[in-house]
Amino acid sequence: MQHFRHLDADTRERVFFLQPEDIETSDENNVLATALGATLYIPATRSDLTATVNKRTDEGVRSVVVDLEDAVADGDLDAALANTVQTLNELSGSRSLVFVRARTAAHIRAICAGLDPGANGLNGFVVPKFTAARGGEFLEEIVSASRRHGTRLFAMPVLESPEVVHRETRDAELIAIRELLGNYHDTVLAVRIGATDMCATFGIRRDRDLTIYDVRVVADAISAIVNHLGRYDGSGYIITGPVWEYFADHERMFRPLLRQTPFADQDAVRFRQQLVSSDLDALLREVALDRANGIQGKTVIHPSHVPAVHALSAVTHEEYHDALDILSSDQGGVQASGYRNKMNELGPHRNWAKQTLVRARAFGVTNEGITFVDLLTALAQR
Residue 261: what pLDDT? Predict the structure, then answer.
């Protein structure tokens, strides 16, 4: 898969200093997981499921989850399972990674049993409500399915259970999950965060004027997940951002979260107003906070969210050259950024620089003077 390939060649040349690379399923897990970007969830009950996945892929989506869990009523489950298998058989050669969120390990077995010989439309499974007690059954089933089909199927556990949320059980549960996942390290592509279920534990639904980091009990759980599972020492995993669930305009209580200056500089003030009216300013803010907290990519439930996540995922010219400077020496020390606006510490900033270059492979490096506003405007016009 390759990000931004749906943009025309002239736009890509204008925007990018380094074009996004083609990312293969054979690449290292941290590269592939970083490249997931905005992962779009689609209910498995859709009658036009195959056409929908293909349409969203043409629009720039590069990772899709066919949802058999919360998005499907119990009475519709059998039909949704059949629809999922049919879609996976029809999606061979898709330019998106396609995963299925399965309710049970038995569903994984049934889905894989229904795949046609040679079908390669499935890339793995999302495991909801993952716990140390029940997660092993799912992981073992995914490994077994990979062996049977002679293909590499990934697992993406979703951490959202009360055991992870409640403070008195959190650390013990995350330690147990870390030990379990360590036995399947090559199979686990990324760890996802289920903030909606976390909020439900306390009867909370966050307002669209707020980010998930304003909901302190959930923010605390996210911090612990990154601490236990996001370590950059070879033991950790890419952690993906929780879902943003709003996509329509509403009467606002608080001021917009987007400054006017970046848009005025690019003659895009009206475009800013459109983003604000669709609540995308809060989404952009949350994506920035995700990155600040060690999180890559995001779960989304509406295609209008995808360009916003991807525009902020591209590496800026400044970030890229800072990363190169930091990695140019292994002797440590400190030096001024080539942009003359910060100090780069060659030791402490090294892991940041490595991850920045991974993100550059997946999402490209923008030209000097090009901001996320330029890229987001180009994606919106597409």
Answer: 53
Q: pTM of this prediction?
A: 0.91
Give the C-alpha separation, 44 to 219, whole Å: 30
As a whole number of angstroms, the distance between CA 19 and CA 10 comes to: 12
Residue 217 token pair = 């009990």
What's the CA gap between 316 and 77, in Å, rounded?
44
300 touches 244 (CB < 8 A): yes
Q: What is the pLDDT of residue 7?
A: 95
Q: From CA 177, how far away is CA 163, in angstroms rounded?
A: 11
Q: Which of 234, 213, 231 is nearest to 222 (CA)?
A: 213
Q: How far apart (Å, rounded) are the C-alpha atoms in residues 72 and 45?
A: 7
Partnered with residue 365 across adjacent β-strands are 18, 315
Query: Could you tell me what percent of the chain has a pLDDT over 90?
Result: 76
Please give the backbone phi and psi of residue 25, each rounded to the nearest 5 degrees, phi first.
-70, -15
Write the CB contacts of 82 (distance below 8 Å, at least 6 apart in sequence).
none
DSSP 86-146: HHHHH-TT-SSEEEEE-SSHHHHHHHHHTSPTT-----EEEETT--TTTHHHHHHHHHHHH
**Structure token pair of residue 154:** 């990934």
Q: Residues 237, 186: contact at Cβ < 8 Å? A: no
Q: Which of 289, 294, 292, 135 is nearest to 228 (CA)?
A: 294
Side chain identity at 142, as an amino acid letter?
I
Half-sphere exposure of 123 (CA within 13 A, CB side): 26
Tell me what pLDDT residue 269 has: 45
206-211-213-217 Cα dihedral, nearest 10 degrees = 0
Q: Around Cβ 381, how many Cβ atoms within 10 Å?
A: 9
Q: Outline where DSSP puts E strands in 296-355.
A: 298-300, 334-336, 343-345
Question: Could you give the angle at the alpha carbon of 304 between the alpha carbons of 300 and 310, nearest 5°?
Answer: 70
pLDDT value at position 278?
Answer: 52
End-to-end CA distance of the chain: 19
Token couple for 136? 């092993």
- Which ranges of the chain have pLDDT less than 70? 247-279, 382
Q: What are phi and psi of 130, to 5 degrees?
A: -70, 130
Residue with tokens 């749906």: 6
pLDDT score, position 339: 84
